[in-house]
Design goal:
Layout lengths: L1 E2 L2 E2 L7 H11 L3 H13 L14 E4 L2 E4 H5 L3 E6 L6 H12 L1 H6 L2 E7 L3 H15 L7 E3 L4 H6 L2 E6 L8 E3 L1 E6 L5 E7 L7 H16 L2 E2 L10 E3 L5 H7 L7 E4 L2 E4 L8
Parallel strand pairs: 5-6, 6-7
Antiparallel strand pairs: 1-2, 3-4, 3-7, 5-10, 8-9, 10-11, 12-13, 13-15, 14-15
Bound molecules: benzoic acid.
Length: 266
């Protein structure tokens, strides 16, 4: 198959299988594991600074074209291993409960797994019931692993049990994408560790601050804390740029603090 100028061979079930019949065509563990290993071997990857790949995909709320979905917003694309699993249920609930925070930062959220859109739909009802949440963002249904392979989201260690025994699953990947469709952050968590979505909000704050002002954010930075001048900005330029932000505090030639430039000076 041709996808964004790359040639990908489909290693996936045929159309009859993809429709749900593969349980009856299951060719034994060897065949399933060979296919899984092939999927893992052929994965691409998406790096910080890449232009995020465009693709079409099914979601629980219809088909999307990814770049069109992002539009002029920031975007957090995050994958989970499997619907109807405990950690994933809490993660999707936590993300949904932060709806106002994402909106305040102009961030569109989109989930992702290799389950079907019908499963997503049924699972969302469960998430909302058990997590006091209202999941109102789409979840991509990448049953054929087309997009998972393109982004390199498939896990080396966790193969699905049950009817899909031996099938690959996505890890807990996070991609933060800017309105320019540039990949700004890539995270990968294993299946058994739930992510901290307050941290992802913090990263979005830091990315948006750096995109707006010529600063970087030090360890454990929180909005309002001091920031640092970027290493390639000269002292003269830093003094000039931050003169009306409280100036520069120079500890070393390479370590120069400035107040959070988004704060208004009193
Ligand atoms: C979970 O969401 O709890 C989970 C999913 C896949 C593997 C392990 C844990």
């Amino acid at each position: 198959m041709k996808l964004l100028d790359h040639e990908y061979e489909s290693l996936l079930p045929g159309s009859g299988e993809a429709a749900g019949a593969y349980e009856f065509q299951y060719a034994g563990p060897d065949a399933a594991f060979t296919r899984a290993q092939e999927q893992l071997r052929r994965q691409g990857h998406v790096r910080i600074g890449d232009s995020v790949p465009d693709f079409t995909a099914r979601t629980n709320s219809g088909s999307i074209r990814f770049h069109k979905f992002i539009g002029d917003s920031w975007c957090v694309l995050f994958s989970h291993p499997a619907d109807f699993t405990p950690v994933c249920t809490t993660e999707l609930g936590a993300t949904a409960r932060l709806g106002d925070e994402w909106a305040r930062r102009g961030v569109k959220i989109i989930g992702f797994s290799v389950d079907s859109s019908e499963d997503h739909e049924r699972w969302i009802a469960d998430i909302n019931e058990t997590q006091s949440s209202r999941v109102d963002f789409p979840i991509i249904a990448d049953k054929d692993r087309r997009v998972s392979m393109l982004f390199g989201m498939l896990d080396q260690t966790h193969f699905r049990h049950g009817p899909g025994f031996g099938e690959t699953m996505t890890v807990r990947s996070v991609f933060v994408i800017s309105p320019l469709k540039r990949v700004e952050l890539v995270l990968s968590y294993p299946a058994h560790v739930g992510r901290n979505f307050d941290e992802i909000l913090r990263v979005v704050d830091a990315l948006q601050l750096s995109a707006r002002y010529r600063v970087a954010t030090p360890a454990n930075w929180r909005p309002g804390d001091d920031t640092v001048v970027l290493p390639f900005v000269s002292d003269e330029e830093a003094e000039r740029t931050f003169a009306d932000k409280g100036g520069v505090r120079r500890v070393r030639s390479y370590l120069r603090y400035v107040r959070d430039p988004s704060l208004r000076l009193l």
